[in-house]
């Protein structure tokens, strides 16, 4: 994505024909800014009157802080208000943003914005009854769809198991524990303030989740792509009942 953007800027400066962006770059840019706008709007609206966060601020302060906290769950992980004072609904919004994470092959954790977008395209195609998934004039390969589903489901499994384990280890509420786990999985760095009070085993668990979130999705996606092999036969088709 960075290479294509640099090439596009260089061509624009030279006045030559602008090269087209790949499907990956288009999906990444559109999804990134879509999540950015959605995060800013939701966080600002949900925390607007919260006396522990945006409530006491002036109008410009509310807008600026809301924009900052709508963007930070998927980037740097900084905070200017007490995350523990946020409404549980806002924490859940942050959980979703942190779980998605940033762009592929970047330093952010999570399942990546491209994976999230591919899942949305697959769901949309299934709702419409389309046999194949078409995105911006291109057809998505079935292997890419399976890789996206695998990465997302394994990410959900990691977060679910870690959350259940931490709930068993401590007496903290679900929303705070889930926030800590998803923040670790997304390597975000945000916290509601309970990490220091967790037992040593719980803190070690968060470290493991952080390592999985940083390395796991990239390694898994690469492994799935490299081990792909052609099957020389097909088994009879069967259609189990779904839903």
Automatic annotation (TrEMBL):
Species name: Nocardia wallacei
Superkingdom assignment: Bacteria
Keywords for this protein: Cell membrane, Ion transport, Membrane, Transmembrane, Transmembrane helix, Transport
A GO biological process held by the record: metal ion transport
UniProt keyword annotation of Nuclease present: no
Segments traversing the membrane: 21-46, 96-127, 148-169, 204-226
Localisation: Cell membrane
Primary site of residence: membrane
GO cellular component: plasma membrane
Name listed for the protein in its UniProt record: Cation transporter
Pfam families: TrkH (PF02386)
MF (Gene Ontology): monoatomic cation transmembrane transporter activity
Membrane topology type: Multi-pass membrane protein
InterPro entries: Cat_transpt
């Amino acid at each position: 994505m960075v290479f294509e953007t640099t090439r596009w800027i260089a061509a624009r400066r030279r006045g030559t024909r602008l090269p087209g962006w790949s499907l990956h770059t288009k999906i990444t840019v559109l999804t990134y800014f879509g999540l950015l706008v959605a995060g800013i709007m939701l966080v600002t609206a949900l925390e607007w009157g919260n006396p522990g966060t945006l409530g006491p601020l002036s109008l410009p302060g509310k807008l600026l802080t809301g924009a900052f906290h709508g963007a930070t769950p998927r980037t740097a992980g900084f905070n200017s208000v007490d995350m523990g004072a946020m409404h549980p609904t806002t924490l859940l919004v942050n959980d979703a943003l942190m779980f998605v994470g940033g762009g592929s092959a970047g330093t952010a954790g999570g399942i990546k914005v491209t994976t999230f977008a591919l899942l949305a395209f697959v769901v949309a195609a299934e709702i419409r009854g389309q046999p194949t998934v078409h995105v911006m004039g291109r057809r998505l390969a079935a292997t890419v769809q399976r890789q996206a589903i695998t990465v997302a489901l394994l990410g959900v499994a990691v977060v679910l198991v870690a959350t259940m384990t931490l709930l068993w280890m401590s007496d903290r509420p679900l929303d705070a524990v889930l926030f800590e786990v998803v923040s670790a999985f997304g390597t975000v760095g945000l916290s509601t303030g309970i990490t220091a009070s967790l037992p040593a085993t719980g803190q070690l668990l968060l470290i493991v989740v952080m390592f999985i979130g940083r390395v796991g999705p990239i390694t898994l996606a690469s492994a799935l792509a490299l081990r792909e092999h052609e099957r020389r036969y097909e088994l009879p088709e069967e259609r189990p009942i779904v839903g």
